[in-house]
Amino acid sequence: MSTYNGKCHCGNVEWSAKLEKDQQGHILCHCDTCKYLSGGTSTLNQIIPKSALSITKGGNNLGKYTYYGESGKAVNCYYCPNCTCHVYHHQMVMGDDTIILRTGLLAEGINGTLKPAAEIFGKARLPWQKEVAQTFETLPPS
Ligand SMILES: [Zn+2]
Ligand SMILES: [Zn+2]
Fold this sequence. Notes:
Layout (H helix, E strand, L loop, with lengths): L1 E6 L6 E6 L6 E4 L2 H7 L4 E7 L3 E5 L5 E6 L5 E6 L6 E6 L6 E5 L4 H4 L5 E5 L22
The structure holds zinc ion (2 copies).
The site of one zinc ion (ZN) has 9 residues, from loops.
Organism: Polyplosphaeria fusca
Keywords: Lyase, Metal-binding, Zinc
Protein name: CENP-V/GFA domain-containing protein
């Protein structure tokens, strides 16, 4: 297990996350929601226990955006209200204790040390974007 530190663009929010060995990589999500929320081709994520994330600065002021996923259950997105960087998402369908961390905002995400581990919703990957890791059409079989 290693500790990774992240911060938002404006610096009002900072956090640290403990990642197990098998969590030390990005899961690229190509779904359309991720395209909208990031303004990019995909998002960089990892599924971690809620207890593995600690918001060390600005945690009381996070903004929250809620949308409803394909399951019909809420997805709560927590972001810096000043610069709008998304810190993590909580998908209700995954239970109370599991969150989706935006690994792209960790220092190792910004500098490229963390590598792609898998790609999900590959069916929505933009046709000009190269495959960089094992790709699942939607989600991996559970
Ligand atoms: Zn910010
Ligand atoms: Zn997505």
